User: Fold these one by one.
Assistant:
Number 1:
Amino acid sequence: MKKELIKKEYDSKIDLAKKYNKAYFDEDKPLVSDREYDLLKISILELEKKYFFLKDKYSPSANVGYKPSNKFQKINHEKPMLSLSNAFNKQDMKDFLSKISNFLNSQESNIALSSEPKIDGISASLTYKNGLLSKGLSRGDGIVGEDILQNLLTIKNIPKKIIGKNIPKILEIRGEIYIGKKDFETIKNNFANPRNAAGGSLRQKDSRETAKIPLKYFVYGFGIIEPSFFKTQIEFIEKMRDWGFSVNPLNKVVQSLDDIEKQHKLIEENRINLDYDIDGLVFKVNDLELQSRLGNTSNSPRWAIAYKFSSEKAVTKIKDIVIQVGRTGAITPVAKVEPVTVGGVVVSNATLHNEDEINRKDIRIGDVIIIQRAGDVIPQVVSVDKTKRHKKNKKYNFPTKCLCGSITKKEINLLTNKEDSVRRCIKGYECSYIAKEKLKHIVSKEAFNIDGLGKKVIDKFWDLKIIKFPSDIFKINYEKIGHLEGWGELSIKNLKKAIEKAKTVSLNRFIYSIGIRHIGQENAKILSGFFGSIKRFSLLFILSKRKKILKNLNDLDGIGDTQIKSIENFFSNLKNVEVVKLLILELNIKDFKILNKKGKFNNKSVMFTGGFDKISRSEAKVLVEDNGGKVLSTISKKLDILVVGDSKPIKKKIEKAKELKVKILNEKEWYKLNNL
Ligand code: IVH
């Protein structure tokens, strides 16, 4: 065949693929079946293989790797797939237990917990309708997952049909997909560890590729079950075993802190003998009713925690020490080390925390060091092997300037009045390093969640002056981008779409995004409940109003002096105020929404005074919020109900409520109202 003819055939196939892609991605209306698309893709790849002169940036061969493919359909989880908070020692576990008993206002210190190995794999949700596996989702961001049913169907120990008695109409189970250590040895290829390999295999577009990998599944929990008759976590797990699922044989009920420690030690010592990687134990309140009373914070349940194993260590050498600048201006020293494998992952950087840490451990370039890695966090330097120190290894002089050339300062900690150990660049958005980090935070998953604006893209757009401040994200000059390498029609269209979508944002995400120090997702949520709307939040820009508001914040659970000082500092900085104001102009910020519209406290505000007998103040507050109400901390005309607990109520408050004709309930009446 003539070259021209081959090129013509190839181009027409590429055009077709482009058309299919457009319909699929931009219009959500696939023109052909996945199978047909794959056949087209294969024929393009075959042509390219045969005729080396064929190349096109729209070719499927340009999409290498196993990045989450946009081709998986996104589906909302019926119930969010939360993550777990971590414990690292006995004290953390003690705190976990006491938080639970405080929340439940229970005197009982020995609460039954299910202890389960924490499998280091990839989580997935499986929904069975009348016993038939009919939906399979990846965790995604916890709210929206990807439809990976076809790939899950290839996993041998996942039942496709449940056989047994009393199978619920809807059964959504959750569990971990993993590759056994031995199996991993046979398929390793390019993967750093079994977890990566499991993730990669699960995201294959072609499920025949997934089928080649020996994936396995352990059930550890559930989402929706209708109807449900389970009373405890362990009962659920046992039933799953009866119904043919694999459950971990090391699951066990424990009762006390001592039991927890014993079990943790036992499993940690034996983990090496297991055929799968585990990175800790998960402890869950066994009683499902107590679980539901405890509920969740924004990211993780109050009824469960991951108790991590102590980390793995390795010996290496420091090649260099460099500094990194964070979004708050913090200057963090990082050791560049000779690559070494720690717990299956190749490590070439280790954090040195701050100047004091380097001095205390006397860490020098050229030193032989021991590093350790725990979970996904960046490895740390544990100690220096001074016997191996070369005479020429000089003491490290910590730079006093930021990478941008500006001076740095150690702040005085406003609470302790002592000098901070962290040096910070004081230039804010004027420092290119800080500005880029702030922008990366703003576009991150937890904040504006803008797909297509990854770290490298932000660096590039900043350098090219396409984006300087957060508000610029929403005023991008797309024509300019069109001239850049790697930016085709499709990627620009997708970016536009993602940015357009991000313009509508909830108040809590907005507050989190602007990056006030010490205001994480949970605090942002608390603040958004307090302010209710961006209009009220904007009062923080005005000095006189700000002072008053900050005083009131003290009443909010979870907001302490550190947060209040930090908010004050943030808004005292005029540049911050300007940046935030400009950003607000670009956005549609939704008022804080009370989730459960049909709740019995819908649009009602409740206040508590005095302590209760049966439940804690925190649980009472959650009860109101989960049922559509708002908890206030001052009495005003706006208040609907004042609940007076039996123990030490404040008389003045009751009198004032009477004066304002606010409805008053005593402890008993309050329980009755809540069917407690
Ligand atoms: S419970 C809301 N149990 O760990 C409860 N998770 O860091 C959340 N995992 O996303 C999960 N083994 O992928 C639970 N026995 C176990 C687990 C387990 C592994 C993973 C899971 C989850 C992550 C949380």
Note: Residues 82-84, 116, 118-119, 123, 176, 220-221, 282, 301, 304, 306 surround 2-(butylsulfanyl)adenosine (CB under 6 Å).
Number 2:
Amino acid sequence: MSVVRVDPFQPEQEIIKRAAEIIRRGGLVAFPTETVYGLGANALDEVAVRRIFTAKGRPSYNPLIVHVGEVEEAQQLVRSWPESAEQLAQHFWPGPLTLVLPKRPEIPDLVSAGLPTVAVRMPSHPVALALLRAAAVPIAAPSANRFSEVSPTTAGHVEKSLGDRVDLILDGGPTMLGIESTVIDLSGPQPILLRPGLISTEDLAPLIGLPELPARQPSETAPRPSPGMLDRHYAPRAELRLFAPDRRKEAASLAARAVEEGQIVGALLLSALDAPIQHAIPMPHDPSAYARLLYAALHSLDDLGCHLILVEEVPATPAWAGIRDRLQRAAR
Ligand code: AMP
Ligand code: MG
């Protein structure tokens, strides 16, 4: 395995060529996208895709997102391209929005975990786009971390989690957005939000002519299994506890007790908490800025050996929905 630095704005041709060659030969390349680092393999090569599952320790019922370098490439992977897909792709691609559509048979069942649909996305990160275009194949890429861990937003996070299970890590610096893409299912009679992200339902609904966008109910017995929907996901090693802003007293005494017992306590806070917390990280009040910092903050609290991480709940508004979702999953 090697880690190679690459210019995030103008990726060096030779480096991209080398990475593309690895993908075309069935290898694994970790690369930056604007959301998180991805662990990529040729989506049309079943043996290569299997290596992703093995490297991550990811269960095979968990489908992967297929990344493309052009909108036309996505259209060739699916059996239908409804007007809603056209509108959303025109508006948000390249960018952090994943569309789920009926899949063509060329896509190995392993990619879609046996589902009749495939998730496709055109990322906007220059390194990801350059790699996709040089490889000239669609690239299946989940986040470049072991299954259920916090997603990587730096090459260092990838190296720590996957080490030499990857053939090459392209280090393009920290990712710009910091949480995974919004996922919307367009394969059924009506669009369904499968995973919230920084593109919110408020952004999406008007473009597909809906007053609002239904989210998949957690109680629904997974007719559409999707990795981001797994209960414990995006979790740090430490125990993560969420507290409502009006429960600061309880949170402070929880911290005090833990510290008394010799635990190392961290916190992600939107406002001051009067407690003997060793590693309190003040978080931004803007959702994009919060998302950019979130995973790096959790990785660093893990590295500091925290046993407990207290996290102040974020607002229950559409703009924060992606962040709320990741925090709730990490807290289970
Ligand atoms: P990640 O671990 O970031 O690659 O997450 C993959 C995401 O893709 C999940 O959250 C799912 O919502 C989604 N996904 C991938 N393929 C499908 C599919 N065929 N049907 C529904 N969701 C899918
Ligand atoms: Mg993941």
Note: Residues 142-143, 151 surround magnesium ion (ligand 2) (CB under 6 Å).
